[in-house]
Write a structure and sequence with these properties.
Helix content is 21%, strand content 43%. The protein is built from three helices and six strands; from the N terminus they run E-E-E-H-E-E-E-H-H.
């Protein structure tokens, strides 16, 4: 079985209404587009020579347009999927997620080449993530981020 190592981030910022986080709506093939928009956390493969936390920061910038700083590692998600392209091979994937603090940038201001992967990026209230994010593992990651922010409000 093929193994893939990825990393991603939960980018947070404080707003008047509380904590907000960055989410992305990945591009999907028209036949598989659900009625409810698929929302996910920004993430991607760890490049050779790159540390997972560097990958998380890079992927957040590429997929959302936001610069962010590392706060803490949240957790790893592990799962198996079957490639829907090419060889249809089974892949064991580990994704390390990090809590990141927003530094600068405008949400959804991304390179045109990234539109192949990302339909849009948006801020959502952290409290809404459990209802809006599409993947259970990512909802659990955001729950860990909420817990961290509750214990460390200065983040």
């Amino acid at each position: 079985m093929i193994r893939e190592i990825s990393a991603g981030g939960v980018v947070v910022r404080k707003s008047g209404a509380g904590w907000e986080m960055a989410a992305i709506q990945p591009q999907r093939e028209p036949a598989s587009t659900p009625k409810k928009a698929l929302l996910a956390l920004p993430k991607g493969l760890v490049d050779a020579g790159e540390k997972p936390e560097q990958t998380a920061i890079r992927e957040v910038l590429e997929e959302t347009g936001l610069s962010a700083a590392l706060v803490s590692k949240l957790r790893d998600i592990k799962y198996v999927y079957v490639r829907s392209w090419g060889d249809g091979e089974r892949v064991f994937k580990i994704v390390s997620f990090y809590l990141l603090r927003y530094l600068s940038g405008e949400i959804d201001s991304i390179d045109a080449k990234m539109r192949v992967e990302v339909k849009r990026a948006l801020w959502i209230p952290v409290e809404d993530a459990a209802l809006r994010l599409s993947y259970r593992g990512e909802r659990e990651v955001v729950q860990a981020a909420r817990q961290y922010l509750k214990l460390h409000p200065e983040a």
